[in-house]
Amino acid sequence: MAEHSDDSYEAIIIGGGQSGLATAYYLLRAGVKTLVLDDQPAPGGGWRHVWPSMTLFSTAEFSNLPGWPMPDYDGFPPASHVVDYLSAYEQRYRIPVERPVHVDRIDFDDDCYRIRAGAQSWTADNIVAATGTWSAPFAPSYPGTFAGTHWHSANYPGIAPFQGKRVAV
User: Which residue, among 44, 46, 22, has the nearest Cα to 34 in the 3D structure?
Assistant: First the structure.
């Protein structure tokens, strides 16, 4: 294993949501020098942006990250419960996260990856992409004419704009 400087890691995970944190948990337990780069201003990943009525589709007891159960919740946990859990999980396992960091570029330079975010840069032997799909929603086009509004769930504003209207999902 090569020596690593302060800005050099064995693994860099891009994305600090549940997948990024779970991956960091296992890498850190294995003794891998790991850093998570997250573009959000605070913990919670995509859960920070969901619509007000959004909940998990399973109960808290079935929504655990490795090593630590999600705290109990009566029914399906709302986004705020998930965000609180992810924040506490990050702190509990001392997962090193830098935020907000928007990765602009990744290059491979002979023996390592160079990750660039504005004037910042890091090197890593391995990269894990855990960015999810929240920041790049795909809304397909359909043949014909449609005069209504076409929403992707990533942009869903809640029920108010749809009250009293016909809706197809």
Answer: 22
Q: How far is CA 154 from the centre of its chain?
A: 13
Bridging pattern class, strands 105-109 and 112-117: antiparallel
Question: For the segment 1-51, what is each residue's pLDDT rounded down to a tens digit?
Answer: 445 567 999 999 999 999 999 999 999 999 999 999 999 999 999 899 888
What is the average pLDDT value for the chain, to the nearest integer?
90
Cα(141)–Cα(99) distance, rounded to whole angstroms?
A: 34
SS3 52: coil
Give 11: exposed, middle or buried? Use CB within 10 Å, 0-12, 13-18, 19+: buried
pTM for the complete prediction? Answer: 0.84
Query: Tokens for 48?
Result: 């920070």
Calpha distance 114→124 (Å, rounded): 7
Q: Which residue has the tokens 């549940």?
A: 18
Q: List helix spans (H) across 4-149.
A: 18-29, 79-92
- Copy the structure tokens of residue 39: 């573009």
The amino acid sitting at 120 is Q
